[in-house]
Write a structure and sequence with these properties.
The complex is a heterodimer of chains A (126) and B (498). By secondary structure, chain A is mainly α. Chain A contains 5 helices and no strands. The radius of gyration of chain A is 24 Å and the shape is flat. The chains are: A mainly alpha (126), B mainly alpha (498).
Chain lengths: 126, 498
């Protein structure tokens, strides 16, 4: 349809988004007090913020480490760390990490024939 | 070819060894993720999309597997509900009332057997409904042009935003967020970059798999850190799970009625399994003439929601396959998977890709039978998985999420986005903002925009084309109803209480 004109253009969708946010924002402002179902939201102790931050941080570190350390090593490390954050023992977490890492690595390389990164540290290049 | 001939050909596809294996694996995995609180079918399907794509198997086989997880999860969700009073997914909440009451009476085996048979009845009857109604709807949908599709998608989006949560405004905010994400990247028609903030990684847009895994799976992991493991774990061994003839006679008609209710609710956009289960339960409570047994461990109170939510899951495949319109978060993810597999759902699917449509339908028959065979003798094995500690389960979900997103494009940037969406999803959950409309916005947004622009290009810029046909006007009216009625009703109830 290259020969047809495009009377709507690329602006319509962003404007629609802006409109929805404007309507939503104003109605949330106009409404007094918290919504009726706020109490149904799962609430927990504020103390979990620290572990949640750690968890998100561990995931980001995991992401960055995959090209460097390789999939296998970074998965074993990340799983052990996450396991610890969820209250598991170090050694048990390491066991889970080894099982998951080796299992997934084996599935991708031998099952699907796809190479997950071996790690630039070991292979000498990305 | 007649419908019967097509169905027989479909069984030819579904009975191929690989497809049979994937159907069995899909429903078993579905049972597990449906049962485990915190891991729903939507997480499992989103994580498995890149992994099954990496495996390089044909489109119909991928679909048989992913859809198997979807309806299999409707079986599994009753197991944890009945045994430990923790619904695996929201659609099993009603099952908890009578299901857990039966467990406290020491009759968990009876409840589990009724749930499995009711799921089987609901699943099988609704697949029959699918065979009957899907080709008819596809026939009707051939007449849909871009203007009708635009109005239909608008209706689907408003219906889910309105019915999906308890609050329309929060649903709309989630929808807006999804549409915003849909706009990110180079606009395919004008080549103008939108919301890319100079980031090269955003030029191609954001993959819906990254959004879904972040919003659902990663936020679930973050949320799990604040739930204390206080649920009482039952250690007693299950005896044989088998439905007696007397119980079958007592629940037979309940299952049939609830299946019909669930199927109808499932076909409609927005409502889904949870509403179906509630309605199915409510109907049976009425039919039982309120003899007082409902709520105190009546097996009909288990049968009704379980038949209804399974029928709803299969019913929702009709608009997904014949119109390309998802009515829920999970079906939106399935639509994304179909598109990525280069299978265009819609009226042409039935004719042009019969191996996909009829192969899937036939495999759903087989899958439901496999579920019954798996669930009656093996429910004790599945239930043992409920003892899996969270320090194994949650890191497992996180690592599978990372692996899946990495397998998509080998992009660390995508992984960063995934974690960011995880935080957003967590904030949304805390603020009671539903997540499903966001996914629907991400998946339907580009299609909606394409249809709007195509219809206006065809009409030469005349906006009247959007309201030109009775079909389009009907969808506009329905969409308006879903936006306007909830505030009106809450205004009326408020006025009455003052």
């Amino acid at each position: 349809m290259g020969f047809l004109v495009d009377p709507v253009g690329p602006r319509a969708l962003p404007y629609l988004v802006a409109g929805i946010f404007a309507v939503g924002g104003v109605s949330l402002l106009v409404r007094r007090g918290p919504g009726p179902e706020d109490s149904s939201a799962p609430t927990g102790p504020g103390a979990s913020f620290a572990s949640q931050g750690l968890c998100a941080g561990a995931l980001l570190l995991y992401a960055v480490s995959i090209p460097m350390l390789g999939f296998l090593a970074s998965t074993v490390l990340a799983t052990s760390a996450l396991s610890r954050i969820f209250g598991g023992r170090w050694l048990a977490g390491l066991g889970v990490g080894l099982a998951l890492g080796l299992g997934l690595y084996g599935l991708f390389s031998y099952g699907f024939g796809l190479d997950l990164p071996p790690g630039s540290l070991f292979a000498g290049g990305p | 070819m007649t419908v019967l001939g097509e169905l027989v050909a479909g069984f030819g596809v579904a009975l191929q060894p690989l497809n049979l294996l994937l159907a069995g694996g899909g429903v078993a995995l579905g049972t597990v993720v449906g049962m485990l609180p915190g891991i729903g079918p939507i997480n499992a399907i989103a994580i498995l999309i890149p992994i099954t794509f990496a495996a390089g198997i044909p489109a119909e086989s991928v679909l048989i597997f992913l859809v198997g997880i979807y309806y299999g999860s409707q079986y599994g969700n009753s197991i944890s509900t009945i045994l430990i009073n923790v619904p695996g997914t929201a659609s099993a909440v009603v099952t908890a009332i009578d299901g857990y009451a039966l467990t406290r009476k020491g009759e968990s085996e009876r409840a589990l057997a009724v749930a499995a048979v009711a799921s089987f009845v609901g699943g099988t009857l609704s697949v029959a409904g699918l065979v009957f109604f899907a080709p008819a709807l596809a026939h009707l949908a051939v007449r849909f042009g871009p203007a009708e599709y635009f109005a239909l998608m608008l209706f689907a989006l408003t219906a889910l935003s309105s019915l999906g949560g308890k609050d329309l405004v929060r649903g709309l905010v989630a929808l807006g967020f999804g549409l915003f994400l849909a706009a990110v990247g180079i606009d395919p028609q004008s080549a103008v970059p939108r919301f890319t903030f100079g980031q090269l990684g955003l030029l191609d847009g954001i993959d819906f798999v990254v959004v879904t895994i972040g919003l659902f799976a990663i936020s679930e992991v973050l949320l799990a850190l604040e739930v204390t493991e206080g649920v009482e774990r039952r250690r007693e061994k299950l005896r044989r799970v088998w439905l007696s003839l007397a119980d079958l006679a007592r629940t037979g008609w309940t299952m049939v009625r609830a299946s019909v209710v669930g199927f109808v609710v499932g076909v409609l956009p927005g409502a889904g399994g949870t509403v179906a289960a509630f309605l199915g339960y409510a109907v049976e409570e009425k039919v039982s003439r309120r003899d007082g047994s409902f709520g105190h461990g009546d097996i009909r109170g288990v049968a009704a929601p379980e038949s209804a939510n399974n029928a709803a899951a299969n019913g929702s495949m009709i608009p997904l396959l014949t119109l390309g319109i998802p009515g829920s978060g999970t079906t939106a993810v399935l639509l994304g998977a179909l598109t990525a597999l280069d299978v265009t759902p819609g009226p042409q699917l039935v004719q042009e890709r019969p191996e996909v449509f009829w192969g899937l339908v036939a495999s759903m028959y087989i899958g439901n039978l496999l579920l019954l065979v798996l669930n009656l003798p093996l429910v004790g094995v599945f239930a043992r998985l409920l003892r899996l500690p969270r320090w194994v389960l949650m890191p497992g979900v996180a690592v599978l999420s990372v692996t899946a997103v990495y397998a998509l494009n080998q992009s660390v940037f995508d992984l960063g986005l995934m974690v960011a969406f995880g935080v957003v999803g967590y904030v949304f959950r805390k603020a009671s903002i539903p997540l499903a409309p966001a996914i629907l916005g991400v998946v339907l947004g580009p299609l909606m925009e394409k249809n709007l622009r195509r219809s206006l290009a065809l009409s030469g810029g005349d906006w009247g084309v959007l309201f030109a046909s009775p079909i389009a006007v009907t969808f506009w009216a329905l969409a308006a109803g879903f936006i306007l009625i909830p505030p009106f009703v809450s205004f009326l109830t408020k006025a009455r209480s003052h």
